[in-house]
Design brief:
8 helices
Length: about 220
């Protein structure tokens, strides 16, 4: 576990200073996901792999009467996030250093109830233990709560040269679409655990998954 924290800090120690500036050009669909969340008063929403806090800042400004939480394995990234959140004057955001497959609503954040909404924004493709992380998220989600994921997809309808070039570049940052992710979500729906909606974007460059957990 310690190695995971150290590896993430090593990767983002310097990237955090220009991360938001560069990522906006290829992390496509993030803002559409934020609009899809439909957050209500007093809801508790957590982002798994919140990075610099960019998404949480947008949401907290738009929804001052909701409560936002973020976790990340990189303490360095959270330093940047905390500074940005403080500068924005947003008291409704709480950040913690934690792993996606190990966080909990009570032990990590001191809450007495599970989350209303949980979302992964271009983070699940970076998590080796993505399956366990997904299971952990669902465990920390209330009945009728919603789980959202936006991330790279299989790029099936994009030119082969573009797929090869982008995928090779992403692998330098340990990013790769988990091919079994969407089939797993479909299987959960088939088991009656929830209702799934998949939206594909930009010729399957990326996707948004929305999973509403059943009682």
């Amino acid at each position: 576990m310690t190695n995971a924290f150290e590896n993430m800090d090593r990767m983002y120690r310097f990237q955090r200073y220009f991360y938001d500036l560069t990522r906006k050009y290829y992390l496509l669909g993030r803002d559409r996901l934020l609009n899809e969340l439909d957050i209500r008063k007093d809801e508790c929403v957590v982002e798994v792999g919140c990075g610099t806090g960019r998404n949480l800042i947008i949401l907290a400004r738009q929804n001052p009467e909701a409560h936002f939480y973020g976790l990340d394995a990189s303490a360095a990234m959270l330093e940047t996030a905390k500074a940005k959140i403080a500068a924005a004057g947003l008291p409704n955001v709480t950040l913690k250093t934690a792993l996606a497959d190990d966080f909990s609503f009570d032990k990590t954040f001191g809450l007495t109830v599970t989350f209303d909404k949980i979302f992964f924004s271009y983070s699940i493709s970076m998590i080796p233990a993505w399956r366990k992380s997904l299971e952990n998220a669902l465990k920390n989600l209330k009945s009728d709560g919603e789980l959202f994921i936006v991330d790279f997809y299989d790029m099936k309808y994009l030119p082969a040269w573009f797929q090869k070039l982008l995928q090779a570049w992403l692998k330098r940052f340990h990013v790769e679409h988990p091919q079994k992710l969407i089939p797993l979500l479909r299987n959960l729906e088939a088991q009656g655990m929830g209702k799934l909606e998949i939206i594909t974007l930009y010729r399957r460059y990326s996707f948004i998954a929305a999973f509403r957990k059943n009682n």
